[in-house]
Specification:
- The protein is α/β, with parallel strands linked by helices.
- It contains 11 helices and 6 strands.
- Strands 1-2-3-4-6-5 form a 6-stranded mixed beta sheet, sandwiched between helices.
- The two termini are about 30 Å apart.
């Protein structure tokens, strides 16, 4: 569902609408900057391969803010943000002709990486995704860490943030209305037209849509493919559900055997599994199998895998 990424980028990433980005920055950081010219937009274009781009980034008050929009959930957002920000630092080093090999420390703007999620999967109001969760081998706490702070911006969520940033609230309303009209049976073209008309009538993104109505509608028609995305999600959820169900059964069984005092090697033989595989599950269960939280153990194992 790339269409929302494009519209999001247009609303917050265009030089013409710097005040929107400034309002968003203030809302996230409890700051009160008033001059849009204090903010320098430095969004990347055609980064790395396959024309990968970040959505919006800027520098203000010695801070570098990278803001991404996601309409499908991904646990790889920390890695993507890490790459985006590294490239922004490379750009800064090149533009300022900084020598990274000199003895004196190069001072860098402090990074902030935020993801705005408004997909159909139910998620918490705010989540912190950590790059270290994807490491194959664990590292000491606090070493080599990078995080993605994910805000759920579906209509009705994170009301405090939305109240501080009216333009973000209005964006969420427009997206919600497209879904609402689709659910009522409208085809995509009609849903987009009805949502835009609703927004204009109710003063939602009104000035923006009056200026860019046809352009926004074209973006939505061209890039929105909900049915295809939903089919892929359903396939992924089905595969994950089957796998998780099998793992939960296995974890429950191993817990019961551990409570009875059976050794890991005996459990492995009983289940006809490799001993190292059973050990991995036992390590995730911990020292007190009688208090085992099966769902939590499965989540731990999924991260390891």
């Amino acid at each position: 569902m790339k269409y929302k990424d494009r519209v999001f980028r247009m609303i917050f990433g265009y030089e013409k609408y710097k005040e929107n980005l400034l309002e968003l920055f203030n809302a996230l950081n409890d700051t009160n900057y008033t001059n849009p010219d204090d903010l320098e937009i430095n969004t990347l274009d055609d980064v790395f391969y396959m024309k990968m781009k970040n959505d919006v980034s800027c520098i203000i008050d010695n801070r570098i803010a990278v803001y991404e929009h996601q309409s499908t959930w991904s646990y790889n957002m920390p890695l993507r943000g890490f790459r985006y920000t590294a490239e922004l630092y490379n750009k800064l080093i090149y533009e300022q002709d900084l020598d990274v090999y000199r003895r004196k420390m190069i001072r860098l703007p402090t990074p902030q990486y935020v993801v705005f999620y408004n997909g159909i999967e139910r998620r918490a109001e705010k989540e912190i995704l950590r790059l270290s969760d994807s490491f194959i081998m664990p590292c000491s706490e606090g070493e080599y860490e990078w995080t993605a702070t994910v805000y759920n911006i579906n209509d009705g969520h994170n009301k405090d943030l939305m109240n501080k940033c009216k333009i973000l609230q209005e964006y969420a309303t427009m997206v919600a209305k497209i879904r609402e009209f689709r659910q009522k049976g409208c085809d995509l073209d009609m849903a987009i037209e009805e949502a835009i008309e609703y927004c204009l009538l109710h003063d939602v993104l009104k000035d923006f849509l009056l200026e860019h109505k046809s352009e926004v509608a074209d973006m939505l028609r061209m890039e929105y493919d909900e049915a295809r995305t939903m089919n892929h999600l359903k396939e992924d959820y089905y595969e994950e559900g089957v796998k998780d169900g099998e793992m939960k059964t296995k974890v429950s069984l191993i817990c019961r055997k551990l409570i009875k005092g059976m050794s890991q090697s005996d459990i492995a033989e009983l289940l006809e599994e490799d001993t190292s595989y059973v050990k991995k599950i036992c390590d995730a269960i911990g020292d007190n199998p009688s208090e085992c939280d099966v769902d939590e153990v499965v989540r731990k194992l999924s991260k390891i895998e």
